Amino acid sequence: MSSAKERRTSNQITIPTITTSQSTPQTPREQKKKKILFKCALTNTISDVLTNREGWAQTQGDDWQFFWVTREWMTTCYDKHKFTEKQLICHFRNDFELTRKDFLIKNYKKARKAKEKSGVDVATEFNFIPSSYVLPAEYHLFVEEFRKYPTDTIWIMKPVAGAQGKGIFLFRKLKHVQEWKKKDSSGSEALPYVVQSYIHNPYLVGGKKFDVRIYVLFRPMNAWVHREGFARFSHSRYSTESVDDAFVHLTNVAVAKTAADYDPERGLKWSLPKLFRFFKSMHGQSKVSKTMNDLAKVIIESLKSVQNLIIQDTHCFELYGYDILFDENLKPWLLEVVI
């Protein structure tokens, strides 16, 4: 997979290594100086990978070069921390401008409008997110748009900060949109939702819908696309006859696992290289190359849409997860960006 800038690809973060030159046995402290020093605020797979990585050593002090921080640390400590030259952390202060669905849509629309004013044909050159509205703020705009579409058009509703398929539902009639207005058990208003026109003609493999998770490492003015990634398939074969069957329309593993006949051994994932080999076998190299170029453009344009909003601190990087859906013409559509 080529990179989003100058076609460079990287599978790791490069941090300068401190080295010493000794001809006599080294003390533990001297041995530690030869390694990349890291801290990790989590106790999950990320911590395990860092701990077991050759040439890396964990530290509890402030002499770290790499710190996998939490969102809480970003909120409470980022503005107070005095970074040394070689220190690097895994988040930007306001990365939500890209990773919250409502902010993603707001910034996409703003960038699209600017492109249109400059004479760009946005219908062909800047069109990678389906028609979208944030409710309740844009409810009346959505109703106007809704009435322009055929009556059998399918729409999809998503919580702006949801994950793992929770709270997502499809509908064809306006009365079903009232779901987002319902109050939770505490009596407070439900979180805002994003409503989008549903991509009704997804590319199918074996009759099943899928989306793709692509990892993009971003540092100010540079972005690298990881060679690895994966495609997630729906549990059941695709059909638009029913909009209520999550096993047909959603590709989240968390949703598939709830199916009575879910088989963890069979799995519902392909690696990204396997998927593109399949594309090549079905459509040829030329078509797949165009799709990859279109995909790179989606990544670049989405990052450019927030470049003046996200604080460009050189001590920060972000590992974004781009969720992409291909339609039957191999056009990539951006569903969301996660961290």
Overview of this protein structure:
The chain has 339 residues and is of the alpha+beta class. It has three domains: 28-96, no CATH class; 101-197, ATP-grasp fold, A domain (Dna Ligase, domain 1); 201-338, ATP-grasp fold, B domain (D-amino Acid Aminotransferase, Chain A, domain 1, 2-Layer Sandwich). It is built from eleven helices and 14 strands. It has helices at residues 28-33, 45-52, 71-76, 96-99, 101-117, 122-125, 139-146, 246-249, 253-256, 272-283, 285-304; strands spanning 36-40, 56-58, 66-68, 88-89, 132-135, 155-159, 169-171, 193-197, 204-205, 208-219, 222-233, 269-271, 318-326, 332-338. The strands form three sheets. Strands 9, 10, 11, 12, 13 and 14 form a six-stranded antiparallel sheet that branches. It has a four-stranded parallel sheet with strand order 2-1-3-4, with helices on one face. α2 links the parallel β1 (36-40) and β2. α10 (272-283) packs across α11. The longest helix is centred in the last third of the chain and has 20 residues, at 285-304. It is globular and about 65 Å long. Residues 1-23 have low confidence and may be disordered.
Summary of the model, kept short:
The protein has 339 residues and is an alpha+beta fold. It is 27% helix and 22% strand.
List strands and helices in order, with pairings:
Elements lengths: L27 H6 L2 E5 L4 H8 L3 E3 L7 E3 L2 H6 L11 E2 L6 H4 L1 H17 L4 H4 L6 E4 L3 H8 L8 E5 L9 E3 L21 E5 L6 E2 L2 E12 L2 E12 L12 H4 L3 H4 L12 E3 H12 L1 H20 L13 E9 L5 E7 L1
Parallel strand pairs: 1-2, 1-3, 3-4
Antiparallel strand pairs: 5-8, 6-7, 6-8, 9-10, 10-11, 10-13, 11-12, 13-14
Helix pairs in contact: 10-11
Organism: Caenorhabditis nigoni
GO molecular function, one term: tubulin binding
Protein name: Tubulin--tyrosine ligase-like protein 9
